[in-house]
Amino acid sequence: MDTHLTFSSRRSPVVCLHGCVASSQPLASSVGLDILKRGGNAADAAVAVAAALAVTEPSSTGPGGDAFCLFYNSSTGEVTGINGSGRSPKAQTLDFLEGRGYTAEAPPSPFDALNITVPGAPACWCDTVQLFGNHKLSLREVLSGAVELAEVGFPVAEVAAHHWANWVAALRDAGRELGGDLLIDGHAPKCGQVFRNPALAQTLKELGELGKPAFYQGRVAQAIVDVINQNGGVMTLDDLSSHDSEVITPISTDYKGVCLWEPPPNSQGLAALLLLNILENFPLKALDHNSPDYIHVLVEAVRLTLADALRYLSDPEHVTIPLETLLDKSYSQQRAQLISMDRAMEDLEPGLMTGSDTVYFCVIDSQGNACSFVNSTYMGFGSGLVPKDCGFSLQNRGASFTLRRNHVNCVAGGKRPYHTIIPALLTEPATESQKPRLLAALGVMGAFMQPQGHVQVLLNMLEFGMNPQQALDAPRVYVAYDNKTDQWSVNLEEGVDQQVAEELRRRGHKVNWPITGHKRSQFGRGQIITVGDWWSSSVRQADHPSVLWAGSDPRGDGCAHGY
Ligand SMILES: *[C@@H]1O[C@H](CO)[C@@H](O)[C@H](O)[C@H]1NC(C)=O
Ligand SMILES: *[C@@H]1O[C@H](CO)[C@@H](O)[C@H](O)[C@H]1NC(C)=O
Ligand SMILES: *[C@@H]1O[C@H](CO)[C@@H](O)[C@H](O)[C@H]1NC(C)=O
Ligand SMILES: CC(=O)N[C@H]1CO[C@H](CO)[C@@H](O)[C@@H]1O
Ligand SMILES: CC(=O)N[C@H]1CO[C@H](CO)[C@@H](O)[C@@H]1O
Fold it and tell me: Which of 9, 220, 468, 506 is the 20 to 30 Å CA partner of 96?
């Protein structure tokens, strides 16, 4: 397999007036743009893109995974969203797992059928169209682009082909064959090879015609339960039919004249807000982009917030999260004081294992509504189990549960697991007199990279004046925690200076530099659309506040598209 991947092309930001879609697959971006041109709004287009990504990038996302969305309503200025995360099977209690001989030290393998939680994405798609769509197009029409891609086939893109093959190999190493609907003659498709998925086309068609019951009851639900039970899991038809998504009230924080919106816990959106709150205490612009001081402060702030996030973030129905205390700026000031400029902190609380396969995309329509959407199957194809004749694999979100009694993420029947996926929106801060104007839809996928990624690309624009494409192009930093060695490490992408790496080592960080080629996927893949060029330091609030500016991550296959 070709593991070489160079980053040599240059991209301008995409600029347009009426509507814009940015996603990690060009074909999916086209499908979304089509919906906008046919009269659908940002929410309709987002679901069309979601479904098209399920077809074109199944190692990142699909109907067997979860989804979250945030929606900005341009007529009210309100941000709301949908929680599309599914629960563990009701019968899957800690006692049940211990009865099977599993312990915190010897849990089921990540790909085990016991790690499959109820897929929340299909309900989230239906509810997004129902609650936030403009009802000019039916769900069937919204999903038709994805159905066509699955039915007719599409050439697999380069980065998608790479991850497809890697996950097939990882599953094989774990003793599992990926379901045949997602292979061609037992192999992952290569870049440029045309892949068809008629079973998924059928599943999406039925979802388009009948809505949620087509997935959570009947043939698809039965096939899900069958494949899970044949592999030792205990999900029932009732677990599926009792699933529903929930409307959520996003949480936000103000940072120097902008307001960042993230989904509430149990997502890790909270981590992005806490991170910004800590960073607000430092003169970042004066430290210089990707300088040793800047990266040191960023890394320390990430470590502080991840320690908090992992302690407090679980299913709020099962634990009480001191949200107000955590989001209070005085709390972050205290945390910021723990950071010393010349030495990395010792003794920080640990984390959970990470997965990273998620797609993120965003859409802004001609009325100025925005939809920020994310979904995933967690680790590649998730469990790798493919229900018969359905064309998608089942997620393994349960892998972030622990069997340690009294831990906030301890397994329980009917519990939602720790979630690594988050979409985000940026507005002006709300005032009494005026509805907050939309400034951007943005996101960076990739497990624990997401809050770190959101904040880095946001600061690239806000503090360092980069346009959305430059903000995504700039080399990133990923702070990782390794449970096995109990060590934090700082991974620096190719493009960060060697002297910077050396200076960070001198301050006590364990630094990996440079991260190159396909390994750069750990820095996530982001998409950004901004309304106006508020990030530009030279033309403050220019003449055309309604021009859309978009960028798409060079680490992915995708592009932004507008009209
Ligand atoms: C989830 O990901 C799949 C695969 O990329 C995509 O088709 C689907 O549209 C996404 N779902 C949502 C709700 O984003
Ligand atoms: C925005 O909010 C208004 C007022 O609640 C509502 O009438 C309208 O349908 C909403 N628009 C969308 C696209 O959801
Ligand atoms: C998901 O829904 C549950 C309600 O069942 C809620 O408690 C939780 O906060 C939601 N999570 C997110 C990320 O919105
Ligand atoms: C619900 C469940 O059993 N989750 C397990 C999935 O796999 C991880 C990692 O192996 C375990 O820690 C979980 O307990
Ligand atoms: C610090 C920490 O969380 N360590 C855990 C890493 O994972 C092993 C089991 O895989 C646990 O026993 C440790 O407690």
Answer: 220
Number of helices and strands (H, E) in the chain? 18, 19
Q: Which residue has the higher pLDDT, 62 or 544?
A: 62
Distance 433 CA to ligand 1 centre (A): 37
Q: What is the per-residue pLDDT across 507-521, written as a single tens digit (0 to 9) for each?
A: 999 999 999 988 998
What's the CA-to-centroid distance between 366 and ligand 2, angstroms?
15
d(C-alpha 48, C-alpha 51), whole Å: 5
What is the pTM assigned to this prediction? 0.88
Question: Mean pLDDT across the chain, nearest whole number?
Answer: 88
Write out the DSSP string of 72-103: EETTTTEEEEEEEPPPPPTT--HHHHHHTT--
Give the ligand 1 atom nearest the CA of 361.
14
Q: Which amino acid does the sequence have at 74? A: S
Q: Between these two residues, 322 and 375, which has the higher pLDDT value? A: 322
Q: What is the pLDDT of residues 261-289, one digit of tens each?
A: 998 876 778 889 999 999 999 999 999 99
Instruction: Check the annotation: does 309 bind a ligand.
Output: no
The answer to whether the beta carbons of residues 492 and 501 sit under 8 Å apart is yes
Is the backbone peptide bond immediately before 409 cis, with ω within 30 degrees of 0? no
Q: What SS3 state is found at 23? A: strand
Beta strand 526-531 with 438-444: parallel, antiparallel or unpaired? antiparallel
What separation in angstroms does the CA of 387 have from each of 90, 105, 197?
20, 30, 13
Q: For residue 409, give the ligand nearest its CA.
A: 4
402 lines ligand 4 (CB under 6 A): yes
Q: Which residues contact 324 (CB under 8 A, 6 or more apart)?
A: none
Q: Which of 198-207, 316-325, 393-402 is modeled with the greatest confidence?
A: 198-207
Compute the distance between CA of residue 143 and CA of residue 203 in angstroms, rounded to an integer: 11
Which of 261, 416, 420, 421 has most ligand 3 atoms within 8 Å of CB, for mutation?
416
Q: Is 407 exposed, middle or buried (0-12, 13-18, 19+ CB in 10 A)?
A: middle
